[in-house]
Records
---
Amino acid sequence: MNDLAHGVTVETEPPLEPVVDKAKILLVDDEPKSLFALQELLSTLGQNLMVAQSGEEALRLALRNDFAVILLDVRMPGIDGFETARLIRARDRSKSTPIIFLTAAADEMTSMFRGYEVGAVDYLMKPVVPEVLKSKVAVFVELFRKTERLRESEDKLRRLAAHLISIREEERAHIAREIHDELGQVLTGLKMEVTWLAKRLKDKPLIEKTDSMCLLIDSTIQTVRKIATGLRPEMLDDMGLVAAVGWQAKEFQKRTGIRCRAKLPAESRFDIDVSTTMFRIFQEILTNVARHSRATRVDIELALGEAEVSLEVVDNGVGIEDQELHAKKSLGLLGMQERALLFGGDVRITGSPGHGTRVSVNIPLRKSK
Amino acid sequence: MKVLIADDHPVVRQGLRQMLAVEQDLTVVGEARNGQEVVEISRRVPWEVAVLDYNMPGKNGLELIKELRQRYPGRAVLVLSMYPEDRYAVRALKAGAAGYLTKESAPEELVSAIRKVAGGGRYVTPTLGEKLALELEDNRGKPLHETLSDREYQVMWMIASGKTVRQIADELFLSPNTVSTHRTRILRKMNMKSNAELMHYAIAHHLVD
């Protein structure tokens, strides 16, 4: 307040973030002495060491943190190490967190097996050999780091893909609108002018000229419309997904001679982005059917639930090989999956050679309109 | 007859004005650039026919038609749209429009449509009329092409698209003999004698482009 009164602003530099975040390691032992020893031993790794003196405490910490590795004493009062591990693993967030059990009882071979059953990844005998412990923990820290980095770059790629998809969609809509509205309307105006002129002409060759001009303008208008609809069907915005899917199915049948049967719900309007996503996926499915399936028939079912919209497209073609499904080059399929994922949905493709292909798409409906 | 012109494009409004000016019995009493203006002008000016662009900025075309119908049941709304009628006309008519024309329509057609709807009639283009008639017919019984199997339908479509037996055989990985057999069966089922008849049927029923 004083600073403000004197017109002075104090700016504090935010503390510099470490370039690499420290990995968290949890040490669990009921004996303070052992805990202290572990801490001393691992401090040279330069990571963030957290400690717990009981199973309960360990669980609480595991709830709020992602650990690179947990060192867990087997024998503890209350919840013992095995039970603690089981509970930690039961939670989704920590179900694959590496755990190293520390056991003092050399004869507890059976306990080791029990340990593996609850999903332990390793164990060490007490008293631990410092070098062994250090190198083991270091390996897990490194693994954790790599996984984190991988997740980050996956996340980045996904965001980039999402960005590109939405940019492309916006651009298409924009261009379609410009072409349709501006070009189309000017052509309409032009045609009216030519007709006006034609009405005043008496000369037959001249009238023939204006007639052919009109025909040219008509076919240009149709081309303009075709281009605009190809970029983004205006129906999607005017009438919604249900009408657009029905129209696209008819167009597909007309264009390919593959018979389409569409089962559609009553028309209703919902989130335009979800509609666009579903529609583009639908188009991609049909493209695949036309290109690869050799089908003679496609059955389409669009359903509108309370919380989600779902689409099922079944063809009677040659079916898809698992190999093809997982081949890196099937970018079209990957694209569909990514599009659906953007809205928390999914695309499932099933089928076997000779028995057609079934594609199921589910996308949750967003609450806001 | 008092006509209101509503279109957001000056070129189109100008064209319409010129076109209607020639007609003795038609007077343009107002011009609107968007749905809001249509509503405002309607309060002041008692037009008889509105020539309405389907998608102007602001209000959705269907909503505007409904609103006008509700407020002024005695007046006629004629939709003049860039959009093809097969997708939009029926909806516009259901919403209360007296007629639907695409902007490629000949000016004479527009003028006669205005006269017709002003008298309380409805106007549909011959193409739409035919389509509606076909739909009625289809509702009475199965259309002929529905009696075909999926494969036969596909072969029929290919013939109607002008493909030869050899081309069809190549594309479908079938022998020419098989394709010929399909063709014979298709013609029999559809009660036809030639490929030309098939083509004609397919075009009339919008099975091909």
---
Amino acid sequence: MISIQHLYKNYAEPAKTGRGKAGRAAGIDGSYAASVSGEPVLVAAAAAGATSEAVSAVADIAPAANGAFALNDICLDIADGDRFGIIGMSGAGKSTLVRTINLLERPTSGRIIVDGRDITDLSGSALRSYRRRVAMIFQNFGLLAQKTVLDNVCFPYVAASGKVTAENRAHALELLDRVGLAQKASSYPSQLSGGQQQRVAIARALACEPEVILCDEATSALDPKSTNTILKLLRDINEETGVTLVIITHSMDVVEKICNNVAVLDAGRVVEQGPVASVFEAPRAEATRVLLGKVDWDA
Amino acid sequence: MLSEFLAEYSGLLVQGTLDTLVMVFASTAIAYVIGTALGVVLHLTVRDGLHPAPLLNAVLGWVVNIGRSLPFIILLIALMPATAALVGTSTGVRGVIPPLVVATAPFVARMVEQSLAEVSRDAVEAAEACGASVPRIVFSALLPEALPSIVRGIAVTLIAVLGYTAIAGAVGAGGLGDIAIRYGYYRYENEVMIATVVLLVILVQLIQSACGWIARRVDHR
């Protein structure tokens, strides 16, 4: 269970530095808000009839960048074994959101609770062992071009222990077989098609024996046929192993094919979420209708 | 006429070539040990790097830039006391290796930094997402991925150092540069001058071809 609670991400904060502690601490106790603009935000929020909890959330962050957040008060619960889609236009913040789940980016404020454990402030070896439970696949595959397919799949073992045992290697070969690429073990990524490279990336993700796989636009660089192969593979793996999939995409087609639940992200906010069928049948948010193609494109 | 020339000068030219090769390869090798470490640290400590440390990055950047600002002939002379203390002499092949290393290491640092910056960010991020520590990312992902580019950089460095050794000839370092200056420049022996130039051209071609071949062999992109 991944529980994302009131997550904010500031545009101004440099990515990946892991040095966002001052901003986060300030966000939590509200002193940053007070120091920037003092009372008006609290007053405005209270006047709008917000609950005390909402007031504190608004007061925490609202003045920091005049409402310009990459992520703005994101609250999501992703159940174990779910295939959870996060959909939005380019720039909606969906990549940023998924990258906060394995802390490739640090949120400005808010909490990420995984299986009851707050992972938001993890660092050092605790962060690294957490990351081994949360695998990730990327739009551009992220394979090491100078390593063979097999060595790429073995990389998580290198990451974990600095070495690859014969047992690891055998397991990696099984995983390559699972994704249908056993015969490509000694090829290099440049010798494979995009779809094949993504299958290698999936095998690498599985080598960690992860509880969650984050898929950041995993099929956006692929043709429809490869997209289907990858989506089927991900769905089957989810059904076989119960691994949770978090699928970032801008394509409704992808969500429709593989996700159970979906959240629609627009300008850093979750504007709609729920089971895929109900969101698709009765889209409430404008962003969802646009993504579904239910607006006049020539308007 | 050619045989006469060879009879008189071949020993000198062979010795000069060997001296040049020793100076070039020994100082480049040492410079790469130091420069690669510097380049990796420079790459890691930038603001959005794997281990941001802006102050360290700025200080190192300054040191590297200072090392690269000094004209080699000035560096060579300025370092003479330190060189003498370190290797016992400030002339000859041995005496020129320390200043060559000092001049080359900052150059190498920037070359390696550049090669590392070319590595696909996705691949590095994927390694990070696998839970690899920074040293492991450096040794198992960054450096292997950058290797072909680093090898091409080695060719550039070797050829730059070859140029430096000719300058070092001016202070009695030996090698082809020394011969060109002593025989060709001071004594107007044009044949010797031409012979050294031909040898230097051949060396440059060989270095470039060999490094290009190795880079292609190790590059699987």
